[in-house]
Specification:
37% helix; Urease, subunit C, domain 1; hydrolase; TIM Barrel; alpha/beta; Amidohydro-rel; Hydrolase; five-stranded parallel β-sheet; hydrolase activity, acting on carbon-nitrogen (but not peptide) bonds; 2 domains; 18 strands; Metal-dep_hydrolase_composite
Length: 449
């Protein structure tokens, strides 16, 4: 990817997400060497920056890039189907599964997920699934930041759809070794745009011993960990029967429950586990839309009050983080039983930006529009009918915007989306490749049913 040219974005509204949560009207952002060199009202533009090439964007709202902390890009292969099956595809018989995906199909579907996320304003995705050694560089080639890892587990996934949990050391050795090799190859790659979090699939698909090994490896390599936690009653029952502990208790005992853990879902936590997760300061990857589609909701009010940090992810079926913002706010208010200061649009926008950056250990680099940070930026077109009039830009963004309102995206100051189209890749070719991959997967699944 070509180096970013120094330039000035001007005449727009800037939602900074800085410590003061400033929203600046008639403002500008100067970009130099891929970083933010200045942000403020245009009336206060320093003379030294006045000669920078300008990109005037009146009627647009600029936000930090979204940090999508929990995705499975390849699972677009079951888009429009898995939402109505009641639980995660990995546990559902009769549809394509991760172990069914061939390398070329994985790359095609992962590239679709990466470009979809970028078009919807996610400048970083934290993706896990299969063939990560191939999908990570393929996704990074789209232009965004990509953290990725293959599923680390020792349960035999080919049996789980039939309700059988069999753990094998050889599977655990292979999946953990693959993850560590991926980190050695790609953590900090693509000029710092790629990385690895060790992806312990879930407490029911990882034995106690494997979970402990993942924690040891993460500490030894200076890596963070992500997992699914309390994502189903089936998981909780399985871990209780196997280990005599709740999933959160088990993660605590093996040394994984801490502020370097990104835990997705966190749906079925008892009072003691809520307190345990809060004390540990875990980062919850809240999946409000996906969970609500399945008839569940994470206890996000209780988690916040306990001390857990919240970030947002889209998970399986789509990459529209704006829709996720809206669902996160609505679910929080349902828990509170009304509208008050505990859940306001700025809270969920922070979860999608700086909160995500904190979960990824990157808050010093991304997540807000501040001098010195990487220029990961998203411009929304607020000239559209559903976003006019605009009295409160953050309110409009959360309540009435859509991911399709993203017009431009920059990563490290490079424009990777312009006028709603990716600049680095052929979108039509990516769509066609993904469609073919999904069709062949479904054909094999039907023939094997």
């Amino acid at each position: 990817m070509a180096d970013a040219a120094d330039h000035l974005l001007c005449d727009l509204t800037v939602v900074t997400m800085d410590a003061q949560l400033r929203v600046l009207e008639n403002a500008g952002v100067a970009i130099r060497a891929g970083r933010i060199a200045w942000v403020g009202p245009m009336a206060a533009l320093p003379p030294a920056l006045a000669d920078l090439p300008r990109q005037a964007l009146p009627g647009r709202v600029l936000t930090p890039g979204f940090v999508n902390v929990h995705t499975h890009a390849i699972l677009s292969m079951v888009r429009g189907v898995a939402e109505d099956l009641g639980f995660a595809p990995a546990y559902t018989p009769g549809i394509p599964h991760g172990h069914d995906v061939r390398p070329d199909e994985a790359v095609a579907l992962a590239r679709l997920g990466a470009v979809e996320a970028l078009l919807f304003g996610s400048t970083l995705v934290n993706d896990t699934y299969v063939h990560a050694d191939l999908t990570l560089p393929a996704m990074a080639g789209i232009g965004g930041r990509v953290f990725s890892c293959g599923r680390i587990h020792d349960a035999d996934f080919s049996l789980i759809g039939d309700g059988r949990w069999e753990h094998h050391d050889a599977i655990g050795d292979r999946t953990l070794d693959d993850a560590l090799a991926l980190a050695a190859r790609w953590h900090g790659g693509f000029d710092g745009r790629t990385g690895v979090q060790l992806s312990a699939h879930a407490p029911d698909t990882c034995s106690d011993a494997l979970l402990a090994r993942i924690g040891e490896a993460a500490r030894a390599q200076g890596l963070r960990v992500n997992t699914h936690l309390a994502q189903s009653r089936k998981e909780v029952a399985q871990v209780l029967a196997r280990s005599g502990r709740t999933p959160a208790q088990l993660l605590d005992e093996v040394g994984l429950l801490d502020d370097r853990l990104v835990a997705a879902h966190c749906l079925f936590l008892d009072e003691a586990d809520l307190a345990r997760c809060g004390r540990a300061g875990i980062h919850v990857a809240h999946i409000p839309k996906g969970n609500a589609t399945g008839g569940t909701a994470a206890p996000t009010s209780a988690l916040r009050r306990a001390g857990a940090a919240l970030a947002l992810g889209t998970d399986n079926m789509h990459a529209d983080m704006v829709e996720v913002l809206r669902w996160a706010l609505a679910i929080g208010r349902l828990q509170e039983g009304g509208v008050d200061d505990f859940w306001q649009p700025m809270h969920v926008l922070r979860m999608a930006t700086l909160g995500g950056a904190e979960a990824m250990g990157l808050a010093d680099r991304i997540g807000s529009i501040e001098v010195g940070k990487q220029a990961d930026l998203v411009a929304f077109d607020f000239r559209r009918a559903h976003l006019v009039p605009c009295v409160n830009p953050v309110g409009n963004l959360v309540h009435t915007a859509q991911g399709r309102d993203v017009e431009h995206v920059w990563v490290d100051g490079r424009q990777v989306v312009a006028a709603g189209r990716p600049t680095q890749v052929d979108l039509d070719a990516i769509l066609a490749d993904a469609q073919r991959a999904a069709q062949t997967l479904w054909q094999r699944a039907r023939e094997g049913a």
